[in-house]
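SAMPLE LOG
Freezer: B-3
Tube label: C17
Construct: single chain, 90 aa
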Amino acid sequence: MLAQAIRPAVVDVLADVLPEQVRRALAKPYYTVPEVMDLTGWSRRKVDYLRERREVDFIKRGRTVLFPAEALHAYLDAGLVSARKTIASP
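STRUCTURE (predicted):
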């Protein structure tokens, strides 16, 4: 009886939290320039441009450039445009 009362709340919380946790668990901690290009569809020049303007966080060790996954996803999420809520017509 108690389990039946709690179940809907647990399902709602898991539906909100679980997708993000799975994405984080499966994601790499850092992306290389070619991986950023594959992930976003940007050209190498676009990736370099964003790095040069310091619009996206990066790590540079010698000639190796890495982008923290969290920072890259935060940059992409910052440009999110919410969908309009439409009323379904009869």
